[in-house]
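Hi R.,

As promised on Friday, here is the backbone we talked about, encoded as structure tokens. Could you run it through your design pipeline when you get a chance and send me back a sequence?
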């Protein structure tokens, strides 16, 4: 009855809004509808029913089979079948095993994990307890970003309240199963989202990836068999147990079952989290759920998969949201970041932005990632500064493909994706930057020219803002910009209230 009450409440509150009409909430089912700091609210919403069910009615093998049959795949980015991972950990014979929750959410603009933990922390506790029962683990660790103080507070309270109610601890619900968990804080290194780097960090070592094999299921945290999933994956477990594998597998398409939470960001009307059934098209997400592009601008591209993903064009908007289709289109599902880009954005500059992020977050362990990404960024910077040379685009492609093949972990292997996908889909913009020293979107500052038009009234705001004295003129008389002194900083353009300064990018043939 509790579950029905909350479901009906959600429909009554949100069902008539376009943003929610095509969503189906499983991982986010309780977020915004219950008090996350009140365990009674969670129990009333059918919470811990799944844990009681597995402890009283199911064997560990039954649980693993249910997860396998559901078709659930890891929501952290790689999309590995969850049930197979659980089965591998369960087969290991050891005196101690761990389950780990990867809550180190580092993608720019991504806040899926944070919202789930802040809105429904007991779902993570329950999911991990079920996973521990299935694989024979007795200890759990949540690796959570220290930058999420509210998530830390609520999850810690959920763990403490679960202990008081015997959902954690010894002989849970009077069974022979004992399990407890704790939180370990991460310092914000993007590479620690990679599972082996994450385990190194928990162990007190530098967050750098390990070579695989052995995989964590065989030798993970402290050398023990370890089951590791991300927040969204754990949040799906209780619903699968309660409703059944067939229910979950009926949602979605092909090898991608269930729903996926996306963080819609960028040039889109409705920003925020959206949980959509697998199989929905990019067009439906952007225009039906996201409300389309604001301010009458034209859609240009969508970046899926965060800094490790790719940029897809308007011709690819019918691509369905599933692991295989996105990979075939030249991007990835990733953890769920989705950035919408409109016609005012420069794709070369976008690629540079993402590469700056991955280069700064590289742990430096392997040469292809440490040196290769840095060289790619140098070339991109040269191109956006108007110093691009013939052959630079081909160098970027060669370097990117080499880094993808030779890097040790997923960060390095996927870091070139934004560059390679934008070259593939927007090559003409790269060619304009290199050959004509031109940025059609008027974004790359050093490729711009600022001139004063006849609207100038001589207010001198532009002259006062210029840091190099390139603007001259008497008060109340038209001013001029000495182009040989101009450093293209754009301060004059931003300071003028009378639209008296034109910003242009004039094509210049390469000498």
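Update: got your reply. Pasting your designed sequence below so it's all in one thread:
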């Amino acid at each position: 009855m509790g579950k029905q009450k909350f479901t009906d409440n959600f429909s009554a509150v949100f069902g008539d809004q376009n943003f929610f009409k095509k969503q189906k909430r499983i991982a986010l089912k309780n977020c915004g509808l219950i008090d996350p700091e009140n365990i009674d609210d969670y129990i009333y919403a059918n919470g811990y029913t799944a844990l009681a069910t597995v402890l009283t009615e199911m064997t560990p093998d039954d649980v693993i089979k249910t997860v396998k049959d559901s078709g659930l795949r890891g929501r952290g980015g790689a999309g590995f079948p969850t049930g197979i991972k659980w089965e591998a950990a369960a087969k290991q014979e050891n005196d101690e095993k761990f389950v780990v929750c990867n809550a180190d959410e580092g993608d720019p603009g991504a806040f899926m994990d944070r919202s789930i933990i802040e809105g429904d922390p007991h779902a993570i506790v329950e999911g991990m307890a079920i996973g521990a029962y299935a694989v024979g683990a007795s200890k759990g660790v949540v690796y959570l970003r220290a930058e999420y103080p509210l998530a830390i507070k609520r999850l810690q309270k959920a763990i403490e309240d679960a202990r008081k109610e015997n959902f954690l601890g010894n002989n849970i619900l009077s069974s022979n199963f004992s399990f407890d968990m704790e939180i370990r804080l991460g310092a914000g290194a993007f590479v620690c989202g990679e599972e082996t780097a994450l385990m190194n960090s928990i162990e007190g070592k530098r967050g750098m990836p390990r070579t695989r094999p052995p995989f964590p299921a065989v030798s993970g945290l402290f050398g023990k068999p370890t089951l590791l999933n991300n927040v969204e994956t754990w949040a799906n477990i209780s619903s699968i147990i309660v409703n059944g594998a067939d229910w979950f597998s009926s949602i979605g398409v092909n090898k991608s079952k269930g729903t996926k939470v996306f963080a819609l960001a960028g040039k889109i009307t409705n920003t925020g989290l959206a949980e959509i059934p697998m199989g929905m098209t990019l067009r439906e997400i952007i225009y039906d759920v996201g409300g389309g592009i604001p301010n009458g601008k034209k859609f240009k591209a969508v970046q899926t998969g965060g800094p490790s993903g790719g940029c897809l064009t308007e011709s690819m908007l019918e691509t369905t949201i599933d692991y295989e289709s996105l990979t075939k289109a030249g991007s990835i599902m990733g953890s769920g970041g989705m950035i919408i880009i409109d016609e005012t954005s420069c794709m070369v500059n976008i690629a540079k932005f993402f590469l700056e992020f991955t280069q700064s977050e590289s742990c430096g362990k392997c040469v292809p990632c440490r040196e290769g990404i840095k060289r790619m960024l140098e070339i991109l910077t040269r191109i956006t500064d108007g110093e691009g040379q013939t052959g630079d685009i081909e160098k970027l492609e060669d370097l990117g493909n080499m880094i993808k093949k030779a890097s040790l972990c997923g960060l390095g292997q996927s870091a070139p994706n934004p560059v390679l996908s934008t070259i593939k889909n927007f090559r003409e913009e790269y060619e304009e930057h290199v050959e004509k020293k031109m940025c059609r979107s008027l974004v790359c500052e050093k490729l711009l020219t600022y001139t004063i038009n006849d609207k100038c009234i001589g207010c001198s705001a532009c002259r006062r803002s210029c840091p190099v004295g390139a603007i001259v003129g008497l008060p109340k008389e038209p001013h001029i910009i000495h182009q040989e002194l101009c450093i293209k900083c754009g301060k004059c353009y931003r300071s003028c209230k009378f639209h008296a300064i034109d910003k242009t990018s004039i094509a210049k043939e390469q000498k």
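One thing I noticed while checking it: The first strand starts at residue 98 and ends at 103.

Thanks again,
M.
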